[in-house]
Amino acid sequence: AGKGGKSKRSKSKGSRKKTKKPVSEVDILSPAAMLNAYYISHNAAACLEFRGFSWPGSPKKKGK
């Protein structure tokens, strides 16, 4: 017969600190960025909103 109900837990490694890469400045007017904006945006307002320039009082998008 086996002994009482204690189970061994595997030891997890301590929380590792992830080294954050420095955020590089991205040119939103580069040819690659403009091509991407052309394909994902329906109009100029949508393009600006995708780039982070939303107008005040705009309705918020609901997350997925």
Structure description:
With 64 residues, the protein is an all-alpha fold. It contains two helices and no strands. The chain has helices at residues 31-40, 44-50. The model has no long low-confidence stretch (mean pLDDT 78). Residues 1-21 have a biased composition (Basic residues). This is Small lysine rich protein 1. InterPro entries: SMKR1 (IPR037760). Residues 1-24 are annotated as: Disordered.
Provide a concise account of the structure shown:
The chain is mainly alpha-helical and 64 residues long. 27% of the residues lie in helices and 0% in strands. It is elongated.
Number of strands: 0
Number of H/I helices: 2
Q: In one word, what is the shape?
A: elongated
- Percent range for helical residues? 25-40%
What integer value in Å does the Rg equal? Answer: 24 Å
Could you give the order of the helices and strands? Answer: HH
Which blocks of ≥5 consecutive residues have pLDDT under 50? none
Assign the structural class, choosing from mainly alpha, mainly beta, alpha/beta, alpha+beta, or little secondary structure.
mainly alpha
Strand content: under 5%
Main sheet? none
Mean pLDDT: 78
Oligomer: single chain
Query: What is the CA–CA distance across the termini?
Result: 52 Å
Protein name: Small lysine rich protein 1
Biased composition (Basic residues): 1-21
InterPro entries: SMKR1
Region (Disordered): 1-24
